[in-house]
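sry for the spam today, last one i promise. struct tokens for design, 373 residues
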């Protein structure tokens, strides 16, 4: 399928993801328009993360086989932004049964990793010129959607695939929380960097100063995924920022985010230590069979119960360790290295059902690229 799903519900070969929605279920937007809890909800977050780590691995090893691997990931991401025929709309994932059905509600989180991953790929030797041309077209389409929809009159919402506003407010790109403020100018900056279209540079400069100002004081209680998405947004802005004073301010905020992540890593490792090896090998559920469902503004969401924590701990360990490595001259302390190494050594990767292991790989290859391992 060339895209990544959220969890495994079986370790039996051929049945690992039998829980995924059918084309008929996706077609009627069941159980909800985000595909929440079905295993299809974070495909572009994971695709962007995987594409980024492949770029890091190639920088370390130069393995020619990675060109094909990266091309497959890119193909899946391209499918999610084109298969539905809605220009610039980044679907979360594509139904593996018919390879075309999508849930109509995306999120700013999906866009953040999607754009960041493509930006990294574009700047990597892994992408040939034909691929770069495709990336330019995709980036332009995404930026144009932002220009068209993300306006005060539309409450800064880039909207669902059907053109309706998202009732959950997860598609709002401006007038948001501190950890989300850099997302919109990051998209415009990446679009400008790949296309050199001054239209996108103008939009980037319109928002960036205020975005950096708002980013300076994130809520320290946010989960690691929020800090990671904040950090990769700031990474793009820092890399491309031409004004020295603003660049320095972005770098300062990135270091602050790294310090917040240190606390998250320690907290997560302690959480994992409380779990038995058997608990950490827990499988995800068939969401159709769970008894507890949550109704949020009309979106009915199956609840995973005890598995949610197992899935989350695996993911948060990798995300927390990765965040400090994204700062210019990034490094991890001996304490952080010890904490993350302990997680890696204790994880049974053949029997871990969480997509969070992608972030373990991302941390490893970023650290290798920086010469820390």
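last one done:
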């Amino acid at each position: 399928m060339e895209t990544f799903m959220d969890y495994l519900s079986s370790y039996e070969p051929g049945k690992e993801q039998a829980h995924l929605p059918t084309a008929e279920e996706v077609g009627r937007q069941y159980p909800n328009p985000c595909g929440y809890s079905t295993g299809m909800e974070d495909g572009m977050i994971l695709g962007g993360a995987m594409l980024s780590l492949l770029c890091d691995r190639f920088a370390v090893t130069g393995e020619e086989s990675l060109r094909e691997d990266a091309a497959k990931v890119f193909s899946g991401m391209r499918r999610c932004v084109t298969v539905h025929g809605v220009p610039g709309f980044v679907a979360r994932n594509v139904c593996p049964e018919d390879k075309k059905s999508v849930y109509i509600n995306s999120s700013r989180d999906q866009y953040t990793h999607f754009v960041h991953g493509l930006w990294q790929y574009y700047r990597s030797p892994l992408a040939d010129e034909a691929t770069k041309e495709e990336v330019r077209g995709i980036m332009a389409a995404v930026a144009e959607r932002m220009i068209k929809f993300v306006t005060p009159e539309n409450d800064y919402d880039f909207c669902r695939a059907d053109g309706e506003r998202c009732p959950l407010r997860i598609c709002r790109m401006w007038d948001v929380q501190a950890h989300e403020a850099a997302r919109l100018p990051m998209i415009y900056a990446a679009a400008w960097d790949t296309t050199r279209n001054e239209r996108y540079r103008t939009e980037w400069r319109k928002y960036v100063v205020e975005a950096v100002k708002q980013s300076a004081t994130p809520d320290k209680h946010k989960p690691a995924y929020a800090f990671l998405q904040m950090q990769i947004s700031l990474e793009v802005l820092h890399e491309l920022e031409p004004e020295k004073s603003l660049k320095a301010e972005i770098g300062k905020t990135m270091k602050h985010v790294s310090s917040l992540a240190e606390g998250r890593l320690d907290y997560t490792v302690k959480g994992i230590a409380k779990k038995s090896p058997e608990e950490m090998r827990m499988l995800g559920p068939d969401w159709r069979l769970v008894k507890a469902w949550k109704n949020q503004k009309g979106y009915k969401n199956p609840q995973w119960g005890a598995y949610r924590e197992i899935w989350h701990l695996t993911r948060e360990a990798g995300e927390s360790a990765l965040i400090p490595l994204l700062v210019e001259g990034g490094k991890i302390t001996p304490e952080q290295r010890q904490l993350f190494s302990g997680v890696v050594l204790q994880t049974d990767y053949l029997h871990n059902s969480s997509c969070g292991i992608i972030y373990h790989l991302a941390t490893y290859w970023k650290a290798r690229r920086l010469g820390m391992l």
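Residues 244-273 form the longest helix (30 residues). ok im logging off now
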